């Protein structure tokens, strides 16, 4: 089964960001951030993935991992 | 205005609109019903522009698309089936015939609109074609 795991929660804690703050910076709703963190929204756009990685100042593969 | 207060305001407007339109229809005042509907529509549109923060994002759009497709399937199939049944059994009964025709034409309009918008967005995303 394909899936994308992520380290958003870890990076949020490192940057002291709440879900609401991250959502605001990424230009999405808090519900979307919650869904991504819980791996319930695997159809997220590449643009959003890059945006989130950019907010944390790291590469996309540091935040998201493709698992098969 | 925040997203939550916008949602609450829209619900209040919808309830008020429903009540006024209901009274207007019951008392046979089509102008009042139409004006109320248009006013509420404009008010919601206006309030939407005043919302601070994100009101709609890619996940909401994806879910809306899925829901719209389900509505298309359910309404399209059910109303076409009911319309065909009423049309074929309603010969000589003007009411059955009218209801059957309304359902069938509604389903047809829905399918046509869906096909048009689908073609529009497919061409738009492809990046070429008449609607680029």
Describe this entry's structure for a reader.
The complex is a heterodimer of chains A (68) and B (132). A two-stranded antiparallel ribbon of chain A has the order 1-2. Chain A contains five helices and two strands, in the order βαααααβ. Chain A is globular, with a radius of gyration of 11 Å. Chain A has helices at 8-14, 19-26, 30-37, 46-56, 60-63; strands at residues 3-6, 64-67. Chain A is mainly α and 68 residues long. Chain B has 132 residues and is mainly alpha-helical. The longest helix of chain B is centred in the last third of the chain and has 33 residues, at 94-126. The mean pLDDT of chain B is 90. The A-B interface holds A 23-24, 27-29, 31-32, 35, 41, 43-45, 48 and B 3, 53-54, 57-60, 62.
Outline the secondary-structure elements.
The complex is a heterodimer of chains A (68) and B (132).
Chain A: E1 3-6, H1 8-14, H2 19-26, H3 30-37, H4 46-56, H5 60-63, E2 64-67
Helix pairs in contact in A: 2-3
Chain B: H1 3-26, H2 30-49, H3 58-89, H4 94-126
Brief summary of the model shown:
The complex is a heterodimer of chains A (68) and B (132). Chain A has 68 residues and is mainly α.
The CATH topology of chain A, please? Answer: 434 Repressor (Amino-terminal Domain)
**Residues in β-strands, percent of chain B:** under 5%
* Oligomeric form: heterodimer
Instruction: Look at the structure and give the CATH class of chain A.
Output: Mainly Alpha
Biggest sheet record of chain A: 2 strands, antiparallel
The structural class of chain A is mainly alpha
Mean pLDDT of chain B: 90
In helices, the fraction of residues of chain A equals 55-70%
Helix count of chain A, per DSSP?
5
Poorly predicted spans of chain B: none
Number of strands of chain B: 0
Overall mean pLDDT of chain A = 93
């Amino acid at each position: 089964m394909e899936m994308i795991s992520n380290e958003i929660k870890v990076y949020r804690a490192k940057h002291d960001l709440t879900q609401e703050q991250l959502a605001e910076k990424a230009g999405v709703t808090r519900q979307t951030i919650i869904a991504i963190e819980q791996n319930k929204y695997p159809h997220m756009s590449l643009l959003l993935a890059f945006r989130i990685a950019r907010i944390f100042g790291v590469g996309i593969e540091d935040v998201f991992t493709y698992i098969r | 205005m925040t997203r939550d207060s916008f949602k609450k305001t829209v619900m209040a407007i919808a309830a008020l609109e429903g009540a006024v339109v209901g009274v207007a229809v019951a008392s046979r005042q089509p102008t009042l019903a139409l004006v109320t509907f248009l006013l509420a529509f404009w008010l919601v549109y206006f309030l939407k522009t005043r919302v601070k923060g994100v009101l709609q994002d890619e996940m909401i759009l994806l879910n809306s698309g899925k829901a719209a497709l389900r509505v298309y399937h359910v309404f399209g199939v059910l109303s076409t089936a009911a319309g065909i049944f009423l049309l074929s059994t309603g010969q000589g009964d003007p009411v059955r015939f009218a209801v059957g025709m309304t359902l069938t034409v509604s389903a047809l309009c829905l399918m046509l609109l869906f096909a048009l918008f689908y073609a529009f967005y497919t061409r738009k995303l492809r990046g070429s074609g008449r609607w680029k």
